[in-house]
Amino acid sequence: MTTYDLIVIGAGAVGENVADYAKRNGLSVALVEADLVGGECSYWACMPSKALLRSTSVLRAARSVGGAAQAVTGDVDVAAVLRRRDSFTSGWDDSGQADWVSGAGIDLVRGHATITGVKEVTVDGVVHTATHAVVAATGSTALLPDIPGLADARPWTSREATSATTVPQSLVVIGGGVVATEMATAYQGLGATVTLVARSGLLGGQEPFAGELVADGLRELGVDLRVGVSPTNVLRTEHDTVEVTLDDGSTVVADEVLVATGRLPRTSDLGLENVGIEPGDWLQVDDTLLVHGTDWLYGVGDVNHRALLTHQGKYQARAAGEVIAARAQGRELSTAPWGAHVATADDAAVPQVTFTDPEVASVGLTADAATKRGIDVRVVDYDLAAVAGSALHSDSYKGQARIVVDESRKVIVGATFVGPDVSDLLHAATVAVVGEVPIGRLWHAVPSYPTVSEVWLRLLDSYGRP
After folding, report:
1. Going by C-beta distance under 8 Å and a sequence separation of 6 or more, which residues neighbour residue 395?
2. Global pTM value
3. 66 is in an annotated binding site
4. Average pLDDT over the chain, rounded to whole?
5. Range of 377's domain?
6. Which helix (H) or strand (E) segment is 266 a member of?
7. Strand ranges (DSSP E) for 162-305?
8. Is 178 annotated as contributing to ligand binding?
9. Which Pfam families has this protein been placed in (predicted)?
């Protein structure tokens, strides 16, 4: 038996940050991992997916600017793209991240963790106890919908899509969210013939124009977009192709099928039933990330379903590490909104980028979500292509910008940008939303000319002096 102040289950980016912040605050910490240290983001999500997308994105950007376009004389080097992707995953070798854990003074325990009692975690027969807290930072896994034949067809999930060693000649993508649209973009760019099947359209939860512009972009890339239809059957044929039958009577045949229809929490085999918590469910937590009904178990990152994004999980992790240490040491807590020991931004200030072509960058509430919260909403839209910096950025720039204003307080509660490289606009919007910067003060934040950021001036012009 070994004893620590804190035991963290899951050594992905979220678990690492909880452990690091708790250790920096004076706690002894064990970090338990059954797979690769660094987790989903490092090996099967954020890093490899963006590496797959980047090369073709740069190529398209060059082709959209006169002078540069004439210099592009070849196609993307797929083998080089895959090698570059592998460099970001260190060839799926986690020794570098394991060394970081050791260097931070955190004990790495490899193996499957089971919660066997209050503040008790058993790993491969060895019992570890926590004097103060246990953190579940086990993340999420791909949801496989109940489509006849799908499970037997050896479908890809995001893991297979981001770690593939070859590019299939053809690919069917089922889903319309971030993973589906990004991987459709990536594989079409790498030479596959892609069909995207999206029952409810693209990028639900974003402003409607985001999904519409991304749909247009996918079609321009050559993706066969099937919206409003659903798969009714999937068959892996004797020729090792995949046959997907849709409810409109059509059939799509491809080399592989990628399922990207949602996520499930990795809580089914944690032993939660041993402490009276239903296994397999998302963990319900308060703003200090403490699991409801406990005073020792924390759920951080995807596992609590507040915001399934690495950067937001790391934000939660910083708060969790700080609050666990403060409680362990009997220090005063700062748990008021925007305090040091709470994850307030998860409620209405989450930034997100979808790396499609065009990109989608958003933060805060959509107009619909704000209205449903009872906010006195005013929406301001602007055509990004009408900004001088956009014309310089690309000869065929297309895009849209929107801010959602709380008229009663005269502050921005949401912003969405769609267009090439709009991710560069996002942090300014995030600061405006989180800081609740009055519209009147934003008038004095002068954007540089000629940049795409000039859209801020145009949005404020359209709004008018408050």
Report:
1. 64, 65, 66
2. 0.96
3. no
4. 97
5. 358-463
6. none
7. 170-174, 193-198, 224-227, 231-236, 242-246, 251-254, 256-259, 263-265, 297-299
8. yes
9. Pyr_redox_2 (PF07992), Pyr_redox_dim (PF02852)
